[in-house]
Amino acid sequence: MLELHTISKDWRSRVLLRDVSLRVASGETVAILGASGSGKSTLLKIVAGLEPADAGRVMFDDQDITHLPPERRRFALMFQDFALFPHLNVQDNVAFGLVEQGLRKADARTQACALLERFGLQDFARARVTQLSGGEQQRVALARALITRPRVLLLDEPFSALDAEMRLQLREEFRQRIAEFNMATVLVTHDEAEARAMGTRGYRVVQGGLQAVW
Questions:
Q1: What is the spatial distance between Cα 193 and Cα 82, in angstroms, rounded to a whole number?
Q2: Can you list the positions of beta strands (E) in the chain?
């Protein structure tokens, strides 16, 4: 269970987040809506440990991880631009997190290939990521995020760079993968249809706080 307790953050003398509290259970996806600059992406960065809160606590399974560095949280954060490594092929992009954790490269590649097969991407294992379509790149990014078995998945506008048809397809695919891996997931988006399609609960950032939408 991911828990946020009264998270607050100011930016340039402006209240960005104020007393934000939230619980996200394993296997649940909570969607957070908001306009650009509303603070929704900042909230994800605080959860990931990439940015400190001015006040409040981040908890996971009753442990206070507020001051834990990102690499020790075992959370995965995905952005809209995929953030794949152009100098690595698909297989090595997916294996990257396991290698960083100390697994032998050969073993990491074996696990990466197995996951790519589950995603229907086995034929692209040796391809450069720049040769893939936007939808294929986003699937590779998801495989890379999931291979380390993260405890929490954080999605920041993951489909906004894709066309409408691909967005619809990947929403359902991501929803199925999240259920399969039983992760607590937070989705940040400005698209309410996307939020409702993926989120079991939805909130909107309003004047720094979370307002329940459904």
A1: 21
A2: 2-11, 14-24, 29-33, 55-60, 63-64, 75-78, 152-156, 184-189, 201-206, 209-212
Q: List the structure tokens of 149.
A: 């078995």
Residue that has been written with the tokens 């906004």 in this structure: 160
Give the contacts of 176 (CB within 8 A, at least 6 positions apart): none
Q: Are 43 and 13 in contact (CB under 8 A)?
A: no
Which pair of structure tokens corresponds to residue 15?
A: 């209240």
**pLDDT tens, position by position, 146-168:** 999 999 999 998 888 778 887 88
Q: Find tokens 């991407």 and name the residue.
A: 121
18 pLDDT more than 90:
yes
Tens of pLDDT, residue by residue over 54-111, are 999 999 999 999 999 998 999 999 887 778 999 999 999 999 999 999 999 999 999 9
Query: Which residues, other chains included, contact 114 with Cβ-Cβ below 8 Å and sequence gap of 6+?
Result: none
Non-local (6+) Cβ contacts of 184 within 8 A are 1, 2, 24, 25, 26, 27, 28, 151, 152, 153
When mean pLDDT is compared across 109-113, 130-134, 162-166, 183-187, the lowest value belongs to 162-166
**126 C-beta neighbours (distance < 10 Å), count:** 9
